[in-house]
């Protein structure tokens, strides 16, 4: 009899246990059903969010392109204006000689000088921040408009000195302008990328100038370095550094072009 009572007691407890666990099983099954529907809902949510993300990327790309065009226009205008003023000084001092049929078209200068120099300024001004970004070391030395304006003033002074200073020979003038150009780079740049790009710009611009002079487009008085003046690379170097600083300053605060992962 005790055994029968104990068996009955255990059976009743097991039955009550099964009745108590049934609500938990139902909740577990409901959780499994919800979890099975979770991935589809997550995928649907991602599908709903994807158009907004693509729209944001297109908007940022459009914004970046608009800023790039604005910087190009500003650099072109600055380069054309500086070329017009500085080349006029060279013509008035009889350093640069143009044919008579070319002169007197635009303030006693060649009409093609400002557009060419403006295009070169736009390319150089956009190239400097791109090289800085590619090297991964953004240029942060004296990044302010006051420093940029002082750099422009020094460049104008170097160009003015090339036309007005009288030395015993062109070699002395070239050495003086070379020292001033390096001083301009050291004062307003001090970056390896700026030095390398300045030397490259001076080399390429000198070759183009020699080609133009060789073909009789214009000429220099008292040439001493393959149809041109020996100090001309110094002017190109300092001009490249100056335009590069302008381009870097314009690029400050401009969002970078988005990358598609």
Find the structural class using helix and strand composition: mainly alpha
Mean pLDDT: 76
Helical fraction equals over 70%
The assembly state of the depicted protein chains is single chain
The count of strands amounts to 2
Q: Give me the strand/helix succession.
A: HEHHHHEH
Percentage beta strand? under 5%
Q: Sketch the major β-sheet.
A: 2 strands, antiparallel
Cα gyration radius (Å): 36 Å
Spans of at least 5 consecutive residues with low confidence: 1-24, 26-31, 33-53, 255-261
Shape call: globular
Distance between the termini: 78 Å
Largest beta sheet: strand ordering: 1-2
Separate helix tally: 6
Task: Please provide a written account of the structure.
It is a single chain. The chain has 261 residues and is mainly α. Helices cover 75% and strands 2% of the residues. The chain is built from 6 helices and 2 strands, in the order αβααααβα. Strands 1-2 form a two-stranded antiparallel ribbon. Helix 1 runs antiparallel to helix 2 and helix 4 runs parallel beside helix 6. The longest helix has 91 residues. The radius of gyration is 36 Å and the shape is globular. The N and C termini lie far apart (78 Å).
